[in-house]
């Protein structure tokens, strides 16, 4: 809307119009877009009718140019959803793979944060980022980054690893999932998959703690849906 507080006003309006449908999972509001879906074409049609009925009762209309029905693929917040799978947007990958080494700790933290957003589709991202994270720990945001030869190599290695990003599968409620753990002293990784199809990766760097439980137990804790959502 272009006015202060307009986002909150729009959120309140949509909750009044589609509140029940949002709670039931028939429709989702992400940023300024509405997404209506279903596990089957029949369920999708039923949910779509409910959305149109709710909008019609409030005398609201959808713009034809902005309404896309049953697309083969769509991009949501930098992720491409296509035929039951999710992969990172090429634009997001290109932005990270083409940037120059950050000059300050603040910029390096921003790079690491953006990289971690893609950790689900990049194998071994925790170990790849470990050398870079060690530089940011305990340093002021405005401090300059001293790029040694080994640190520069680690940065470019992280950029090269972006090209190996993979698609992950969107599981259905009836799918039987396997939790495969792979723990070590400093890192852990996890993949949930039906049969041999990769669903997601959950790499993480473990903090040093003499009394911590075995890494496989930490993996099972981190795999809980309540502790970390699936992208």
Describe the structure.
This protein has 231 residues and is of the alpha+beta class. The protein has 2 domains: 6-84 and 216-222, no CATH class; 87-167, no CATH class. The protein has helices at residues 6-24, 41-57, 90-97, 105-116, 125-136, 149-161, 215-222; strands spanning 27-30, 33-36, 73-76, 79-82, 85-88, 168-169, 178-183, 187-193, 200-201, 204-205. The strands form 3 sheets. It has a 4-stranded antiparallel sheet with strand order 3-4-5-6. Strands 7, 8, 9 and 10 form a 4-stranded antiparallel sheet that branches. Strands 1-2 form a two-stranded antiparallel ribbon. Strand 7 (178-183) and strand 8 (187-193) form a beta hairpin. Helix 4 (105-116) packs antiparallel against helix 5 (125-136) and helix 5 (125-136) runs antiparallel to helix 6. It is elongated and about 65 Å long. The two termini are 29 Å apart. InterPro entries: DNA/RNA_pol_sf, Rev_trsase/Diguanyl_cyclase, Viral_Replic_Matur_Polypro.
Fold blueprint:
Blueprint: H1 6-24, E1 27-30, E2 33-36, H2 41-57, E3 73-76, E4 79-82, E5 85-88, H3 90-97, H4 105-116, H5 125-136, H6 149-161, E6 168-169, E7 178-183, E8 187-193, E9 200-201, E10 204-205, H7 215-222
Antiparallel strand pairs: 1-2, 3-4, 4-5, 5-6, 7-8, 8-9, 8-10
Helix pairs in contact: 4-5, 5-6
């Amino acid at each position: 809307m272009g006015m202060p507080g307009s986002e909150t006003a729009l959120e309140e309006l949509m909750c009044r119009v589609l509140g029940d449908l949002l709670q039931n999972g028939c429709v989702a509001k992400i940023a300024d877009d509405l997404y209506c879906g279903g596990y089957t074409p029949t369920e999708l049609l039923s949910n779509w009718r409910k959305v149109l009925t709710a909008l019609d009762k409030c005398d609201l209309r959808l713009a034809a140019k902005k309404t896309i029905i049953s697309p083969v693929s769509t991009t949501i917040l930098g992720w491409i959803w296509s035929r039951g799978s999710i992969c990172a947007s090429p634009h997001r990958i290109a932005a990270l793979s083409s940037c120059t080494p950050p000059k300050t700790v603040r910029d390096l933290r921003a790079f690491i944060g953006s990289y971690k957003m893609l950790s689900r589709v990049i194998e071994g991202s925790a170990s790849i980022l470990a050398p870079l994270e060690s530089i940011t720990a305990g340093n002021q945001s405005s401090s300059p980054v001293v790029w040694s030869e080994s640190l520069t190599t680690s940065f470019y290695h992280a950029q090269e690893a972006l090209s190996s990003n993979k698609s992950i599968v969107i599981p259905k409620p009836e799918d039987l999932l396997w939790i495969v753990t792979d723990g070590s002293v400093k890192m852990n990784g996890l993949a949930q998959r039906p049969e041999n199809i990769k669903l997601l990766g959950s790499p993480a760097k473990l903090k040093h703690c003499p009394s911590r439980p075995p890494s496989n137990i930490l993996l099972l804790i981190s795999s809980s849906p309540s502790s970390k959502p699936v992208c």
